[in-house]
Amino acid sequence: MTAPLIQIDRLSKRFQSGGGIFAKPRAMMAVRDVSLSIGKGEVLGVVGESGCGKSTLARLVLRLIEPTAGRVSFDGTDITALSPAALRKMRRRMAMVFQDPYSSLDPRHTLTEVLAEPFAAQGEPLSPDRLPEMLAAVGLPAAMAASHPHQLSGGQRQRVGIARALALHPDFVVLDEPTASLDVSIQAQIIALLADLRDRLGLTYLFISHDLGLVRYFCDRIVVMYLGTVVEVLPDTTAAPRHPYTRALMQSNFAPDPARRRAIEPLTGEIPSPFALPPGCAFASRCPRASDRCRRETPALGGDPAHPVACFHPL
Amino acid sequence: MTALLDLQSVSVSIGKVALLDGISLSVARGQILGLVGESGSGKSLTAMAAMGLLPLIGGRVTQGAVRFDGQDMAAMTEAERRKLRGGRIGFVTQNPMTALDPVQRIGEQVDVVSRLHLGLDRKAARARTLDLLTQLRIPEAAAVAEAWPHQLSGGMKQRIVIAMALAGEPDLIIADEPTTALDVTVQAQIIQILGNLVREKGVALMLITHDMGVVAQICDRVAVLYGGRLAEEGAVAPIFAAPAHPYTSALIGCIPQEGMAKGALRGIPGAVPSALAFPTGCRFHPRCDRASELCRSTVPPTDPRGDGRVACHHPGALA
Ligand SMILES: Nc1ncnc2c1ncn2[C@@H]1O[C@H](COP(=O)(O)OP(=O)(O)OP(=O)(O)O)[C@@H](O)[C@H]1O
Ligand SMILES: Nc1ncnc2c1ncn2[C@@H]1O[C@H](COP(=O)(O)OP(=O)(O)O)[C@@H](O)[C@H]1O
Ligand code: SF4
Ligand code: SF4
Ligand SMILES: [Mg+2]
Ligand SMILES: [Mg+2]
Asked: Which atom of ligand 4 is nearest the CA belonging to B315?
């Protein structure tokens, strides 16, 4: 692998919610003890179900929120220790595309104003000749600059989100489910655009999705999360899963081929509440391989460093 | 097989806007029909038409007929249609939250369906409810029946909505994107459960989905809609083996598959047209790589193909 651009070390985030006159405050670990690295030019995928901590991890990596513990280094610099001024300077090199193209663009602004935001954050003006270039890079006509987000389709809005992220020529872009709210036809367009941009601009991506099929198509390595922890890192897109949860995710993806119909080994059991995780492996309540040990002890991510898995009875 | 639900060349308008144009499709008992297309292609409107619910959104059937079990829905009184819905026709919506009353316990909400439509008493209705919850693999059914909607996960809530759709012993279930809002592992489970129940009970299912993977996995037949028209319809195996309509084949090509080369996923260029500005001729022509002058000027006729139909001037060959 190339030299890591991003190094994540034992990162954790604890959230407290509720509290007040009637409710007792409750705490949960949205991200627990996550360590990862992302090589220059790599596309690292993060996959997992709703609430498993993907967006929280994304925001931690860009230090949009403060970690409870752990560090993130960007190109050798510990960004969790940077002063606000130094962090702002560093932010030029990192950007994010958000999950929801409907709420991440201010409806009152024209596209010109939306695309000027990253420049304003750095105290710079947006030069008028950059604008058509930015729109063209994501396949939008220059004439659209005066439009408002509500005049655009979902796919066009997400293209604007991508143009905004690329405004300051970043090295690293976090893509938080950039296609989750789009039709598959438009999703494929956006994925093709992201691939082209990576090739042309030499970008490094952290690509978040709940769709393992999509992640396997688009990413180089794949991190599988379950309830705040990393349970497996697949070294490439063809690696066979070793964690029972990864296998369940794979089986949940139906191939568009009636000749490959199959019975799904249904996951029974419920997902435990993140506020009251039982002892042991968090997946034990749904795992067909769970043993007594799984319900007592928590498996750590380990084994083959190229393909680590957190499971006592891996496949 | 005789059709239980039969749409014969149904056109639908809301106000002056024509949204569906001559849709014909049918579902038989024990059969699963997948209804697919991008958002805005007319899937939900087709479902509303099939249930006689168009007046609710100010719409009406302007041409053609909807028949349920041989009877023309338009000739029924609204009271008769209301009796069908929830009774012989069960409905599952995309968002379980809108289908459940937040201030009523789960069990009571399911009970009421069989009390109303099957005339069961309280005790019998509850027994039936618990039986249904168990069939839907809900653990501790009795405890869940006493719970409030907000205490359940999304996947659990959707199973309750399916239980409600089944409670009136329907002959037909119409499910409009029943798993879109759910996590993938839960989606797979619910699709599987729904499919098995339909086969066991011999119910007809019209399953609306945008996922060609789901269609391939559980449907017997598929109807592909585009721009308010039927593009292609037929048995699943031959259509996936050799889609005749370029739109069908493009939709299948949008799904990332194992072993697909990087760059192979290109999507469909452009976007679904608005009903206010449908293209002339074949409505798919601005996005179609096979489009000819004929396609731009002339609406393609719907021709038989295999045991199905296709509406395209230049259809692909049978496998
Ligand atoms: N600001 C916050 N305060 C309290 N809890 C939070 C906050 N942000 C996230 N959480 C909780 O942390 C957990 C992880 O949330 P996160 O948004 O990272 O999940 P996700 O994997 O991105 O899910 P999705 O697929 O639904 O986007 C969830 O249980 C969520 O409710
Ligand atoms: N209540 C409504 N009023 C006006 N137009 C509508 C209404 N519902 C749907 N439409 C239009 O009808 C077309 C088909 O919509 P719909 O059946 O909801 O599509 P799908 O379910 O395939 O996403 C779209 O162009 C949509 O904008
Ligand atoms: S540790 Fe045990 S419960 Fe957890 S995934 Fe492995 S086998 Fe299943
Ligand atoms: S009729 Fe013409 S434009 Fe329409 S789908 Fe067929 S080939 Fe394409
Ligand atoms: Mg998220
Ligand atoms: Mg719909």
From this structure: 6
- Taking only the tens place, the pLDDT of each residue in B73-129 is 999 999 999 989 888 999 988 777 778 999 999 999 999 999 998 999 999 999 999
> Rounded to the nearest 5 degrees, what angle is found at the Cα of B187, between the Cα atoms of B3 and A177?
125
CATH number of A4-16+27-247: 3.40.50.300
Q: Is B107 a domain residue? A: yes
- Domain membership flag for residue B316: no
Question: Taking every pair of C-alpha atoms in chain A, what is the biggest distance, in angstroms?
Answer: 65
Ligand 2 pocket check for B39: Cβ under 6 Å: yes
- Identify the residue whose C-alpha is closest to ligand 1 atom 26: A50
Cα separation, B211 vs A268, in Å, equals 23
ipTM: 0.85
Total count of domains within chain B:
1
Inter-residue contact A135 to A111 (CB < 8 Å): yes
Q: How far apart are CA A161 and CA A182, in angstroms?
A: 14
For residue B173, the domain's CATH number is 3.40.50.300
